[in-house]
Amino acid sequence: MNAVAISDAIVKDLALAMKSGDKVGLSVLRMLKSDLKYKQIELGHELSDEECIAVLSTALKKRSEAVESFQKAGRQDLAAAELAEIAVIKKYMPAELDDENLLAMIRSAIAECQASTPADIGAVMKILMPKVRGRADGRRVNELVRKSLGG
Predict the structure, then answer these.
(1) Which of 26, 52, 113, 138 is deepest in the core (most CB within 10 A)?
(2) How many whole angstroms separate alpha carbon 6 and alpha carbon 12?
């Protein structure tokens, strides 16, 4: 889905959420529309695919962290609300990479920067993260890179 398609889909789904009375969807879609508009104003141009995905990734990360915090605090009701919001946001994200494809990309990045020890994780991540943004969780990528480098 390209940037225009993402924002168009959000606007279209926002109208549908209003008509159907979907309060969670309405709230999340309004927030996404606003976040995308702020980013567009900040950058001063129409958003590219990567820029839209980065905005959505940030929104997902915030909610994932909130879920963890709420679960630690024993607030399953609030964690469930955040999980519902995550489900709405994920509709607009590219498909997640499976381990096989992700490992192939990691091997390629390791070869590209000639990494050989766990001390080289930063260099590998710098190459890898722009390629996998929105399609793989950063922690998961880091763990797989660490294992690949023997750490």
Answers:
(1) 52
(2) 10
The CATH number of 3-90 is 1.10.1510.10
Reduce the secondary structure of 39-59 to three states and give it as a string: HHHHHCCCCCHHHHHHHHHHH
The structure's pTM equals 0.74
- Burial (Cβ within 10 Å: 0-12, 13-18, ≥19) of residue 29: buried
115 burial level (CB within 10 Å; 0-12, 13-18, 19+) = buried
> Can you read off the two tokens belonging to residue 123?
């260099």
First to last CA, the chain: 36
**DSSP structure class, residue 97:** P
* Torsion angle (degrees, nearest 10) of CA 58, 18, 13, 68: 30
| 99-148 is a CATH 3.40.630.10 domain | no
Euclidean distance between CA atoms 88 and 107, whole angstroms: 32
The per-residue pLDDT for range 138-149, each reduced to its tens digit, is 888 888 888 888
Q: What is the pLDDT of residues 109-132, one digit of tens each?
A: 888 888 788 888 888 888 888 888
